[in-house]
Specification:
Elements: E1 5-10, H1 21-39, E2 43-50, H2 55-64, H3 68-85, E3 92-95, H4 99-114, E4 118-128, E5 133-135, E6 141-142, E7 148-149, E8 157-166, H5 172-181, E9 186-187, H6 189-200, E10 206-207, E11 209-210, E12 218-219, E13 222-227, H7 229-239, H8 249-254, E14 259-263, H9 267-280, E15 289-292, E16 295-297, H10 312-319, H11 321-331, E17 338-340, H12 342-371, H13 384-394, H14 396-405, H15 409-430, H16 432-438, H17 440-461, H18 466-475
Parallel strand pairs: 1-2, 1-14, 2-3, 9-15, 14-15, 16-17
Antiparallel strand pairs: 4-5, 4-8, 6-7, 8-10, 11-13, 12-13
Helix pairs in contact: 2-3, 4-7, 5-6, 7-9, 10-11, 11-12, 12-15, 12-17, 13-15, 13-17, 14-15, 15-17, 16-17, 17-18
The structure holds ligand ME8.
């Protein structure tokens, strides 16, 4: 295989409950990034999955009167169904309870041990079960309610037990040198700055095993201990490409990962612990970690007690999968926090999709249907305006590529929808419906140019809205092998004389 590769992952979710909108957002955005690269000619490997071990799973299961494994088995199919419902194109779905993942986790442990980076000691300090994270005392605060909270605002508890440690402190300089040499390693910049100042502040060795419960991967040679859940969780990214078989075709081809997409609350694990584990094990770090923001329902954090949890299944049922994907990708600058509400979603559906793109397609294609027997016309001589707007469409790919390579998905969609707006102005100004009698050749040209603009918009919309974009391309009779990005621009122009199917609406208005 000669194509350049692109290995992209999401965080793996804790299946301690039903998937929520934050999980949906992460996987659908990562899917858009993966689809973009595939359409741009890359050999993409896209991994998502579930993070099943740890005390949080044990405690939630105990409350429900079942085992952690039963809890995982109950919820994991919901995460898989959600990815399917959201039309995600993941190549694999990893569960950390799988035998392949036990092998990989024990192998990386052995490598870190052999490197002299693991030693036995005893841990005494603060632990947040909700975050599955250790916090230094200085990162916690005792609040008026008498509860001590950690850096992310979740309660912490005092833990004291025998534990294995990872010599994280030994990697401080190497990590800082890595951030310096690879400024693209962490995005967006604010997250990078946070990580750099955290590491500059000094790294303590990390407790990496627990003895008070047994739902985890046994420490090799000392099964009284299970691995700290984050050691095994992060390892999923290499399990997914065949580790510990480092000579396998898949590992050699795909590792290091090109992009780990995660939420902003778990940057420290990905940008500090993970590269340190990999350095220790003699493996390359991922090329980039990008943290998206958090979603809020009308500015409020979702919580079961507030009753504002919107589940991904009902939101897709209410609006449809592509409108949901499009809304989150266009509305929320990727990397920043975002808000959603019924009104905001309906507004995007009706303005951007039904009016701007949907109407343009419907009006131009039905004119071809009615006036030209459904046969795409040959264009006549092109006017300066025709040339200009076609050139604008032809110039979109480099803009979109640059935006996607920086995970600025919203900027790519902005650029495409600016063209949609221009195309609407063009269509209104040219008034092809008036030309039918006076200048049919000019009418044919305007309809051809409009159809060609829609073709390019549809091709570039595939990462965000795979199903709807495919329908638009069907209406333009674009063959399946002419839908990738190498068909953008003049080389893929629609061919006059092509018989088009009867046009149907692709973007219905949302009616209350
Ligand atoms: O953190 N908005 O799992 P998780 C946007 N198992 N994203 C959100 C969100 C919200 N409201 N809430 C959560 C874990 N997320 C670990 C990851 S990776 C080796 C292990 C994001 O189920 C969150 O930031 O708590 C994370 O990226 C993902 O959802 C899974 O969160």
């Amino acid at each position: 295989m000669t194509a350049r590769k692109f290995y992209i992952t999401t965080a793996i979710a804790y299946p301690n409950g039903e998937p929520h909108i934050g999980h949906a957002y992460e996987v659908l955005a990562t899917d858009a990034l993966a689809r973009f690269k595939r359409l741009d000619g890359y050999d993409v490997h896209f991994l998502t999955g579930t993070d099943e071990h740890g005390i949080k799973m044990v405690q939630t299961a105990a409350r429900a009167g079942i085992t952690a494994r039963e809890l995982a088995d109950r919820n994991v199919p919901r995460f898989q169904a959600m990815a399917g419902l959201l039309d995600c194109s993941n190549d694999d779905f990893i569960r950390t309870s799988e035998p392949r993942h036990y092998r990989a986790s024990q192998a990386i442990w052995e490598r870190m041990l052999a490197a002299g980076d693991i030693y036995k000691g005893s841990y005494a300090g603060w632990y947040s079960v909700r975050d599955e994270a250790y916090y230094a005392e200085s990162e916690t605060e005792l609040r008026a309610d008498g509860v001590r909270y950690g850096a992310q605002g979740t309660p912490v508890e005092w833990v004291e037990e025998e534990s294995y440690f990872f010599r994280l402190s030994a990697y401080q300089d190497r990590l800082l040198a890595h951030y310096e040499a690879h400024p693209e390693f962490i995005g967006p910049d604010e997250r990078r700055n946070e990580v750099v100042s955290f590491v500059k502040g000094g790294l303590k060795d990390l407790s990496i095993s627990r003895t008070t419960f047994d739902w985890g991967i046994p420490v090799p040679g000392d099964p009284k201990h299970v691995m700290y859940v984050w050691v095994d969780a992060l390892t999923n990214y290499i399990t997914g490409v065949g580790y510990p078989d480092v000579e396998s075709e898949s590992f050699r081809r795909y590792w290091p990962a090109d992009l780990h997409v995660i939420g902003k609350d778990i940057v420290r694990f990905h940008a500090v612990y993970w590269p340190a584990f990999l350095f220790s094990a003699g493996l390359e770090p991922p090329k980039r970690v990008f943290a998206h923001g958090f979603l809020f329902n009308r500015g409020e954090k979702m919580s079961k007690s507030v009753g504002n949890v919107v589940d991904p299944f009902s939101i897709v049922e209410a609006y449809g999968v592509d409108p949901v994907r499009f809304f989150f990708l266009r509305e929320v600058p990727f990397g920043q926090d975002g808000n959603y509400s019924h009104e905001a979603i309906v507004n995007r559906i009706n303005a951007d999709l039904a009016n701007d793109l949907g109407n343009l397609a419907q009006r131009s294609l039905s004119m071809i249907g009615k006036n030209l027997d459904g046969i795409l016309p040959e264009p006549g001589a092109l006017s300066a305006d025709d040339e200009a707007i076609l050139a604008a469409a032809d110039g979109l790919l480099p803009l979109c590529r640059q935006a996607f390579d920086a995970q600025q998905i919203h900027l790519a969609l902005n650029a495409v929808w600016n063209l949609v707006a221009e195309a609407n102005r063009y269509f209104a100004k040219e008034e092809p419906w008036r030309l039918r009698k006076t200048d049919p050749v000019r009418m044919a040209t305007v309809l051809y140019v409009t159809a060609e603009l829609i073709r390019q918009v549809a091709i570039l919309s595939q990462p965000a809205m795979p199903g709807s974009a495919a329908k638009l391309l069907d209406l333009l009779a674009v063959p399946a092998d002419r839908r990738a990005f190498d068909a953008l621009g003049p080389s893929g122009r629609l061919v006059g004389g092509t018989v088009l199917p009867t046009p149907t609406g692709v973007f219905p208005r949302y009616q209350e």
